[in-house]
Amino acid sequence: MTSPIETENELYAGLSEAVRQELSGNGKAVCCTRGTRLIQKGAFPQGVIILNSGAAETTVIVAGRETSLGIARPGRVLALHSVMTGTAPETTVTCLEECRITIVPKEAFLAVLAQHPEIYFSVVKILSADLATADRLIRECARGHQAKSTTRSA
Q1: pLDDT on residue 145
Q2: Which of 83, 86, 78, 101 minimizes the C-alpha distance to 10?
Q3: Helix (H/G/I), strand (E/B), else coil: 94
Q4: What gap in Å lies between CA 83 and CA 89, rounded to an integer?
Q5: CATH number of the domain at 4-153, please?
Q6: pLDDT computed for residue 47 by the predictor
Q7: For position 111, what pLDDT does the model report?
Q8: Among 46, 82, 100, 131, which lies 20 to 30 A Cα-Cα from 88?
Q9: pLDDT score for 5
């Protein structure tokens, strides 16, 4: 049986208990210390990462500077884009404190997904939220760049 924390994440929301158990049964629980990189830009992750406790910051390089995309809290699912697309991540995710995570290996996750296509609804919801965050960051950076350009020309 899954623990309450394992069932309270954005991937498992809306899935049947049987599918949640199948996914969590393939997962490996790990404790990570502060400063641990859960995801490293350019390095393929081991699988889908579920943050069960703690906080982790997601960063991306923008105009040569490391920029925060935000703080992940318990229930957040990480590395989903890389697992689904087979591409290396463009972000780095670093533990801000001790974190307890569950890693569902890529092969196991994709096998369960193939058997239970209803998981795609959760996947799309998560990836859409990630896209909205990226869109917000791009717009904020563009506004900041426009403000600097206006200041310089004045």
Answers
A1: 59
A2: 78
A3: strand
A4: 9
A5: 2.60.120.10
A6: 97
A7: 96
A8: 100
A9: 40
**Residue stretches of the chain with pLDDT short of 70:** 1-7, 145-154
Q: In the chain, where does DSSP find H-type helix? A: 4-7, 17-25, 80-85, 106-115, 119-153
C-alpha span between 44 and 24 (Å, rounded)? 21
**Cα 75 to Cα 9: distance, rounded to the nearest angstrom:** 4
Q: How many residues does the chain have?
A: 154
Phi, psi of 65 (to 5 degrees): -115, 145
Looking at residue 136, what is its pLDDT?
Answer: 84
Nearest to 74 by CA among 92, 57, 102, 54: 54
pLDDT at residue 2 in the model: 43
Residue boundaries of the structural domains of the chain: 4-153
- Say if residues 28 and 102 touch (Cβ distance below 8 Å): yes
CA distance 27 to 67: 30
